[in-house]
Records
---
Amino acid sequence: MRIFPWLLACALPLAGCASVTPEAKVRTSLIDAGIAPPVASCMAERMVDRLSITQLRRLQSLAKLPEKDVGGMTVDQFLYQLRALQDPEIFSVVSRAGLGCAIAG
């Protein structure tokens, strides 16, 4: 299962054009990472509704870890890095969105 690393690697680049909503940016990034469009839409909707812009930016910072290939992380490694943010809400929202949307398809 490598959904979580893909989510993190490309899901949250929020800097950019002000006319594009955070949800659209997250959805586009997930699709670019190879997640199926319906799953990407589901995850983006859940994450943007439940996390603040600040939390999304903190999550984005994990994708910039210089010593890690986020796409190559196992689920356990990813969850460890996610917990390192020390924000239980981020951990809960991202893990539930990834699992729920992957199961819902």
Note: Residues 46 and 96 are 9 Å apart (CA to CA).
---
Amino acid sequence: MATCETCGNDYDKPIHVTKNGTSHTYDSFECAIHALAPTCANCGIRIVGHGMEKDGTYFCCDHCAEHKGVTGLRDRL
């Protein structure tokens, strides 16, 4: 059994994720997303898809980026 880093559940079918050379253990994708997915700098939603990034700041979409004054990003060309 392995203990989930997010919720502490001891689970017999854990998910192991390696990020930047560090291994992590979770009991579900939900817990992995909660722990690893970046959040939008404007609305705070977890970015599960591609998202957008400008100078190390992450946004879920160009609308949120523009709301924070970031221009030139487009999620559709």
Note: Strands lie at 2-3, 10-11, 15-19, 22-26, 52-54, 57-59.
---
Amino acid sequence: MFNLVLKDISITKGTFPVVLILCFTNNMFFINAPAFIYIIVPPLIAYEYFKNSCENDYKYNSNIMFSSLPVNRREVVFSKYIESMLFLIFAIICTIVFTFVFRRIGISGLGVGAFIHVSKLMHLDDFSKLMNFKIIIMYSLLSTILFISIYFPIYFKLEYLKVRNIFALVSILICFVPILVLYIMGSENIYNIVKYFSGIPGIIANVALIGILLIILYTSVNISIKYYENKDLIL
């Protein structure tokens, strides 16, 4: 199983330039609202990596290869989920490092000024101030797990091309849904929500979150295994 994970990681290493582009453009856009960088970029990077992993499986007919190897189908499913979480951890580290370097360099100019104006126009800086690092990481973790929990059962049920078409707008949704939701709710309501969750003891909140994520993942993995074990891989 871990050999499958290593195989996918080695194949998707060409995605790294996309990581740099995502980090740079989002640092520009959210230059005055750094919280949104950590909310949006890690899930987006993780998505790009495991999407490319699935694309490579389709391109090189990996499913047919798996059927001729002593590889359990459960292992194939587990490897996809494990590598997705590794991609998320890698994405968070890349985002933190790149954002730190970007802000240390202190890029400025007419283009940056335009991004600052857009940020102020949408009041993103107000929302950013309401979020601490713990809430930001929790959101990245929750949003990515929710997405892969939906993505992989569909992927193992259907063919990659159909999944690609279904999730064609995912990148746009990841970018704009958090901003749209926060903008509609308003800074006062966001502040009340953050204040409420901040009042919950850390241990209780962490245990509750981990419990919810494990239930979601457990359900998703079992659905994916069921679909994949019943799938005809000889196409």
Note: The radius of gyration is 19 Å.
